């Protein structure tokens, strides 16, 4: 299990199931309840967040291995990685987050990593469930009945973000928004 000082909740599913769509619905609800949320997303392809003709882009393309661009409103770090390198590990990426400014972290993807996850499942897509083969799956969010029975973990409505938020809060937090005893070290750190 990945060690991290805050609740870490993954959303795992096959591509096209709606992980990003769900997270874009969950984030505003968590923010409305006063939670400070970090997010990490795994991408299976090369991506570019910088723009040609911008100074930061020009510095990177001129040879900077790391480029930190900052303003009073935003800070972004771009680290160049060799194409031959292995996929980044979630534990290493978590080190880049400032956990002192967050209450929890939502993770999209990284289904092979060991941390608590909610599986998103749409039976209409014809994909098999990741549960029960992944013991880190703590709930399934689906838009239809599951064909696998019995299911020994909570089944949530994929189209009801409020239900998923209620599950996250009850599973990971006490009423005062402190992490629950499943994270005893973290709870002690937060109270101090």
From TrEMBL:
GO terms for molecular function: GTP binding. GO terms for biological process: Mo-molybdopterin cofactor biosynthetic process. Residues 9-143 form the Molybdopterin-guanine dinucleotide biosynthesis protein B (MobB) domain. It comes from the Bacteria. Pfam families: MobB. This is Molybdopterin-guanine dinucleotide biosynthesis protein B. It comes from Sedimenticola thiotaurini. The lineage of its organism: Bacteria, Pseudomonadati, Pseudomonadota, Gammaproteobacteria, Chromatiales.
């Amino acid at each position: 299990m990945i060690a991290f000082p805050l609740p870490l909740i993954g959303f795992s599913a096959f591509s096209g199931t709606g992980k990003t769509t769900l997270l874009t619905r969950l984030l505003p609800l968590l923010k409305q309840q006063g939670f400070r949320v970090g997010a990490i997303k795994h991408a299976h392809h090369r991506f570019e967040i910088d723009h040609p003709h911008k100074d930061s882009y020009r510095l990177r393309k001129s040879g900077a291995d790391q480029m930190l661009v900052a303003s009073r409103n935003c800070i972004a770090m771009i680290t160049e990685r060799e194409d031959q390198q292995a996929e980044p590990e979630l534990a290493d990426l978590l080190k880049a987050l400032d956990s002192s400014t967050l209450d929890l972290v939502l993770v999209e993807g990284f289904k092979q990593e060991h941390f608590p996850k909610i599986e998103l499942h749409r039976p209409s897509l014809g994909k098999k469930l990741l549960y029960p083969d992944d013991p880190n799956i703590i709930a399934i969010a689906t838009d239809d009945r599951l064909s696998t029975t019995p299911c020994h973990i909570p089944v949530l409505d994929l189209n009801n973000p409020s239900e998923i938020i209620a599950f996250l809060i009850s599973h990971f937090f006490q009423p005062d928004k402190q992490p629950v005893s499943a994270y005893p070290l973290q709870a002690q750190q937060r109270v101090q």
